[in-house]
Design brief:
With about 240 residues, the protein is α+β, with helices and mostly antiparallel strands. The chain is built from 9 helices and 6 strands; from the N terminus they run ααββαβαββααβααα. The relative contact order is 0.15.
């Protein structure tokens, strides 16, 4: 894979390749933020897909909304072996479905992959991905949406194609050590959410807290029940 990437970088000037030790998704994204040269950042997981011509659609939209710091869009979900239908990308239809909002916590996406970020804006905030937690997306978005004021371009159009039920996904692992790590990461995330200060700017975070406690709490319970070692289950629950 490394050799093929190097060949592509030699062939296409817009491709850069970084060879580094695998320290996880968060570490890779942090390097990307630091070394990126483009005006915008889009974090795309390697086992997902993006809609055909999505960059052209986003470019047209952002040219009409130059002061936007974050652009959020919807997704299509699919499972390996199943077919999915890509909607026809017509710019005039997409433009009608685009709205500009001031940042509010109820707009927090579940993943950074469903957003396009202005590179300079992210650099100015100083936000990076938490390399010590398995839920780096949640930490990143919570930090961004509850501490900074910015405008969001919301596009009701599926530009991202998310692969569900991935066998080798870190959140789908049944390995005992991996499950324990996930649960510890969730506890850290719970505590982080609980410490977010509520004021007139981010008072809507309370609705996010309710969703976070419900969804992440359920995931914690599922991860706990999938463990087979009764001794470690007791330690984990405590």
């Amino acid at each position: 894979s490394g050799r093929l990437c190097d060949e592509l970088a030699c062939k296409y000037a817009q491709i850069s390749v970084i060879h580094k030790e695998n320290l996880g998704t968060a570490a890779a994204r942090n390097v990307g933020i630091e070394l990126a040269k483009g005006e915008y950042l889009w974090f795309v997981d390697g086992d997902d897909l993006v809609m055909k011509d999505s960059l052209f659609v986003l470019n047209d939209l952002l040219n009409c909304n130059k002061n936007i710091s974050v652009c959020n869009f919807s997704r299509i979900e699919f499972i390996d072996g199943e077919s999915y239908e890509q909607p026809v990308n017509r710019f005039y239809e997409t433009k009608k479905k685009a709205n500009v909002y001031d940042n509010k916590s109820e707009y927090i996406p579940s993943s950074v992959c469903y957003s396009l970020f202005k590179h300079k804006f992210i650099l100015n905030t100083g936000i990076t991905f938490n390399e010590n937690n398995r839920f780096e997306d949640e930490f990143f978005n919570l930090d961004l949406y509850t501490n900074f004021k910015f405008q969001i371009l919301s596009v009701d159009y599926p530009l991202y194609i998310y692969r569900k039920q991935r066998e080798y996904s870190k959140t789908n692992s049944k390995d005992s050590k991996s499950l324990f790590s996930s649960c510890v990461s969730l506890v850290d995330l719970f505590e982080y959410i609980d410490k977010i200060h509520l004021d007139s700017f981010n008072t809507k975070i309370i609705s996010y807290k309710k969703r976070g406690y419900a969804e992440l709490g359920l995931f914690f319970l599922m991860s706990y029940l999938r463990r087979e070692d009764s001794l470690k289950k007791g330690k984990l629950l405590k």
